[in-house]
Design goal:
Blueprint: E1 2-8, E2 13-20, E3 23-27, H1 33-43, E4 46-51, H2 57-60, H3 63-70, E5 74-77, H4 87-90, E6 108-110, E7 113-117, E8 120-126, E9 135-139, E10 144-148, E11 151-152, E12 155-156, H5 166-177, E13 185-188, E14 194-195, H6 196-202
Parallel strand pairs: 3-4, 4-5, 5-6, 10-13
Antiparallel strand pairs: 1-2, 2-3, 7-8, 8-9, 9-10, 11-12, 13-14
């Protein structure tokens, strides 16, 4: 599997493309749909689904454009099932960046456990705290965790936004992420990648 990262949207949110053959899973398309479409066209790739680590505005900005153009479903956690269609929940109204980013709810809701989408196999970890529906995607065969805004290099997701829970976030990081192999690559929602081992040793929020 090839994993490609783009920094998209108003806050430079990391969007990850999971490529296998000519098929693509799109994780957190935060904006700039034209950038993604150009990449798909240039490499003759076919998106088959959109995965959301959570539904804050900076992670969903291009959802509707990509979903509509390629007629593909959106997968997310049910705890945020209303966030795509409610600007007061996804934060776009709070931050004054537009009333709404998407007009339709997700097609599928993910629970913790293994999932298969065509030839893609991975695990969903339920890691709320930054937001109530935050999930992380564990690609065991690649030793990669796509962590959204749960864990960053040397930091953690903010919990001062509505519905955040600091104690819950720390607990989930320690129990579900730091229990993964130390050499697991952690791909966060913003900023550079890190490893589980690095964060165990040096993250000031976890020690």
């Amino acid at each position: 599997m090839n994993i490609k990262r783009f920094e998209l949207g108003l806050l430079g949110t990391n969007c990850y493309l999971l490529e296998m053959g000519q098929k693509i899973l799109v994780v957190d398309p935060g904006g700039d749909a034209d950038v993604l479409v150009q990449y798909f066209n240039e490499h003759r790739l076919s998106p088959i689904a959109i995965l959301l680590t959570h539904a804050h505005f900076d992670h969903i900005g291009a959802v509707e454009d990509i979903r509509t153009k390629y007629d593909i479903p959106v997968y997310m956690h049910s705890s945020e099932k209303d966030w795509l269609t409610d600007s007061s929940l996804n934060g776009s109204k709070l931050f004054g960046v537009g009333e709404i980013f998407s007009h339709k709810p997700a097609e599928h809701f993910l629970d913790e456990g293994s999932i298969t989408i065509e030839s893609f196999n991975f695990s969903v970890l339920y890691t709320p705290g930054h937001s109530p529906g935050s999930i992380s995607f564990w690609l065991e065969g690649e030793k990669v965790l796509i962590a959204g805004d749960t864990l960053f290099k040397g930091s953690i997701g903010r919990t001062d936004l509505p519905f955040g829970n600091h104690n819950q976030l720390i607990s989930n990081i320690k129990e579900k992420i730091l229990s993964l192999p130390d050499d697991t690559l952690v791909f966060p929602g913003h900023g550079p990648s890190t490893t589980v081992g690095e964060e165990k040793e040096g993250n000031p929020f976890l020690n």
